[in-house]
Specification:
By secondary structure, the chain is mostly beta strands. The protein has no helices and 116 strands.
Length: 1445
Amino acid sequence: SGGSIYIQVDQLIGSGKIQAHGGACTLGSPYSGNEGAGGGGGRIAIYTTTPLSSWTGAVTAYGGAGYDLTHNGAPGTIYIQSTVASVITRRIYIRDNNIVRVPQFTFHGNMSDVGSTYITNAVGSSFTVDELHLHGGGRIGFTSQGSSPFTFTALKIFGDTTATVSPQILAYNNAVVVINNATSWIAPCDVIVGPGSTVHLPVSYDTNSFNLDIQGSAKGAFSLYPRLQSVINFRVNGTLNSVTRGEYKLFKMQQSEASTSRLEEGVQLMPQELILQDTSILYNTKAQITATRIQVYCGAQINAYGMGYKVDTGPGSGIMTGSSASTGASHGGAGGSCGDSGWCHVTPDSYGSLYYPDTPGSGGGLSIYGTCYGDGGGVISMSAQYMTINGTITADGSPGVGTYCGGASGGSILIQTRVLDGVGSITANGGEPGDSTNPYSGPGAGGGGRIAVYHKDIAGWQGLIAAYGGQEPNEFVSRNGGAGTIYLHNTDTNYQHLVVDNGGFGPARTRMEQRYNGGGDTHLTDPTSSYNFDEITIRGSAQLSFVTPPHNEHHQDVSLSVARLTGDHTGAIHNWNGTMYLESSTADNAWQVDIVTYADSTTYFPPHIHMQNTSITFNGLIMGLTHITQMFGSRSRFGINGTTNNNDDGDDGVLGTYTFQTLNANFDGSVQLEAPGVQLITSSIVLEDTASLWGPSFRVQSAVLKVLGNALIHSNNLGYGELLGPGAGRRSYWTTIGTGGGYGGHGGSCTYSADLPCGDAGISYGSVYWPRMPGSGGSDCSYQGAGCAGSGGGVIELTTTDLFIDGSVECNGGDAVKSGCSGGSGGSILIQTTSLLGVGSIVSHGGSGRPLVYDSFLGAGGGGGRIAVYYANDTRWTGSVESWGGSATHLANYGGAGTVYLEDTKRNYKKLKVDNNQVSPQLAVIATEYDAGGTYLTDLASYYFDEITLLGKAHLASQIPTNITVGKRLTGDYTAHLHVQNGTKISTLFSSSSNMSTFELPLSVDMYTLGHLNLPPHVVVPGGISLAVRGGAVEGVSNLTTLPSSSTYFGAAGRVSSSFRSRYAFHTLNIIGGTLYLDYNTTLSGVLCNVQEKATIYGPTMNLSITTIIVSPGASIHADGLGYNGNTDDGGPGVGMNMGDVSGASHGGTGGVDPGPSYGVTGAPYGSLYYPTMAGSTGRDQPQNFNSPGGGVIWITCTNLTVHGRISADGRYAYGFGGGSGGSIVVQTSTLSGRGIVQVNGAPAAIAGGGGGGRLAVYYGYYDNWSGSLKASGGLGSTHSGGAGTVYIMNTITNYKTLIVDREQALPMPFTVTIPTKTPFCTYLTDNVSYYYFDHLQLLGTSCLVIFSQGKAVTLEAAKFTGDITASIHLLSNHTLNITSVPPTLPVNLYLQKSAKAYLPPYVNLYRTTLNINGFLYNTNSIDVRDNAILYMGKQGYANVGVAT
């Protein structure tokens, strides 16, 4: 340190230096902790008896420079005393050479403070100087070394405003400093009134740009003028003009020019007038401001921002949850939750008093991702007669700074004034949350604080009073903090007004999940049993929760009374468990605030409420309310945990039942019956315009119910959810797509392709007469995940006297919301009314499925629901009642129609209607209970309907055995299907009515095993209708008429008017058009069968036993391509061979082949010539590839057969496959007439061999103008055609037998001399007999006749033998041909193999034919060979002798 210099002279002259500096130490290392420090300056005293005018030198006592600014030494003292003319002038200089030091505001009280220059009582108990000069940032401290006081008086103080650091005066430890410049003082330096000191200040204190810090006792200054960025600290241990610690009394404090004042907690600032101007700030840390007048100008502030509890502290501090993020802090409003997925909806409890708020805001919560910052708002308490606030008063909480850090809550502001005016702001807002864009686990914002304003006149106030919750900046609204409370109390009128306003940043919920800490709401937490307000205003999406708080449980019966409830239609008040008295809303009774009541609450309403764009949720006990009017988007919600007691008789109603006199809703008004089982009982309900009444499952009982205009009653998409319910859609076991939900109708099937369903449908269930079950959900899609399917429709039950519907009553299943997912089923609508009027609609449709846009998987539609309407008068009802299945991209995916039951209770007329809106699922046959797209009766053993109407391609069936009686009418639009199965018996009482002897089927009928259907005697199957008897029995029908485009199916397991399965007995069959299919081994019997126009009877193996059969031109009876097919059987005995060849199939004739390494090999011939009963076989191109079925089997037994059309059992044409062989036809008739065709031809084939002909046998008594043809030709092949079949004709009167073999080919066959047993192209006789006799044997069209006897001796004899010289007979070993009569010319080619025998007439004329003898020829003595004929005599044969050659 510097030393001491003492100079006493008369005169000091010169320009030199007088100095006592401290030593410098600029060495050291910042990393070793041994940085060097400078020494303090010394002391210099100069006494003169003359002025120092002749001295131009320097007198300095600088501190020495240290390693850095924290290590510089303080300056020493320079004392100069001049005695001139007996006038002593004392001056002290503190010069510091502008060395920068750290400002010292902490005092140790023992002169150990770094960087200070001291004057102590070493100079005496008091010391007075004329001038005190502070230069270059000098800081002088005054203290007493000991317990005795030390008084220092400075008549004038001069400072150095150019210094880098302001000069300072420090006083503490029994020091008394008197600053006695003048009455009004512009400070030249900082003044610090340290602990234990007293500083006398001028009356008017202008801080200039310097600071004032009061930690001890300050006196004398009654006017303070902080300005020019100066700082005044009012410490709780200091005083001003008071003896009470923390009190600061003065006449005026006027702050301006960016100056700052700080009030510590516990301080009472008591100016008569407080003025804050410009951008000045008064920081208030829970201090009290009491004044006569307070004025805060625009730009100025009283600020307690972030001055409450520190981060993670306070009674409502944020909570860090398992999601790693933190909730916001709570105070008046609950902090925002951290995340939208339920991670942390538990937020801290609210606290504090709304009447006299004095609690700081709490700090935000912490995060695992690093340090968090976020302090609660402080406490501001102000009292003044007059307040003008044009600036800002704020106790906002600070934002959560840091990743996933919660925002802090707002603090408290208490204002007590006579008059409040201005345009400024008074706020205690919550802070925003920290960084996060994660919607599932981000941090929450802080709740708003509490503000109370007591006033007598607030009319001049036009500013903002706000306690908003903090806003989540990324618009995750569930993280917004709840609003705080604003209590406005007019002490003159005692009008108490509570305002809860969240600035439009409310939570996403309109009701709270939890009573105390659900996040984002506002709580009343005063320790009181009752709250009474003249007015409550809730706005800006605020949510006020009225609930007994956890720390106030001893108040079991907390009540809230409000005379007037106002708002902006965005806020809500929640009554959790208290008693709430709502005397009225506004002057015109228009409700402006949402009301939510909960199970444990009691709420008193006025008798009439008028709602506009607001909502009321009813739960708990509702008292006094009798009339509700809703409009302009207003919403009322009725919960299962509530009831009404409008008589106030103490007799509470049944939970879930609400009774009122009237309920009117219009202009988008909404009435929601929230939970299943809710019941609404009224005298009158009127829904107009676009109003709605809805819920998941509800009952409405009203004398008058009107649904007018576009109004709606609905339970759409509110039944069972995705994959839930008795008829839930099912996921396929092999695909990722599921089926639609079922209820009245089965759900639609998901589909991989147009004909390949991929899953069992959601099944039907529930009652037709009394539907009260929700619809079931559809199935999701693994491509999309859960939540993409539609839910089922809910339940609607309406009981009325007068029901007027111009709008809609809907209970539809939900549509799938993503591609590949399926719709839910429709729900239930049950209506009981005396009078039904209107032009509206009552519907319960299934929801739509959606296809995957990038795949062929198709989402399915849901099934329709169930509707039952009971009415006594519907003469003025012209609306619609429908229950359609849900739509889908492909027909296979549509849901089945629901059921519509209509009962006229006055006429006792019962009608069932099933309509699927002209959309038919791919449901030709019901195979299992899970088949998609049908409509099912599921609940009763018997049903009675006066009328059943099936429309719009619907399919009706019963899921259980049941008896269904149709009393008067069975109607339809010719598009729907009735399925009779599972032991179901349908009786039509109208079938015995005289006026119903002829009944045209208005719908298609499908019969199954154990099904039973009774119909009138004469049934007409019109065009577009099918009658399919796959099983079961149809009774009562004797005459059947089918019209063009109709389809009739008689299966092997069914029967009509017969006691035996597969027997179909009629008197008359008029097959005017369409098709009649007879299944395997079915018998069709009757008196008359008339097949007209282009009608067809067909089947694989059928027996027609009918007296008269007429087949008109263009009509047919056929079994074409219905024989062996190789897919469901082995292909038949004559299946086409494939050994390098592609051969046609064989039957009566062998199939043609495609030349290959096994040329000449084909299928084996088979079947009986006389009574053919076997179907034709199938051709093929590969060992397992079959694509050309053979013909079937037709057996006709009749008296009269007229054929102008066609009776056939041909093989089916094939491309690239061998042709199928013809089948079998047996005709037994007394009379055969007509000009038509009866044939069993083999199938033609492209790029392969044709099929062999079949077998036809005709037994007749008379030809009555028969000019038709009987054929069994081989099929034309692109390589080789098939061999001809056999046509056997026998006159049963003359016993004349004819065999015709006609291949109908012009080209000769490429055969060899030796014919194997399965040679292509030939016709074989394969009956197990040893003798064939024909009165006439005719061979034509290059046919080739062979006897197939497996080596046995067989004789073929013909009395008459004709041909066209193109055909041939091949006699094999042990076969004998005996021809007794031939034309002059041998009509065929004859080949005798070894040991074969031929008995021909004596004379044989060969004309262009061949006689090949390798066997034995008898009786012929003369042979004439000419015109290219060939006689071949082999060495193994002989003629008329017994020796070979």
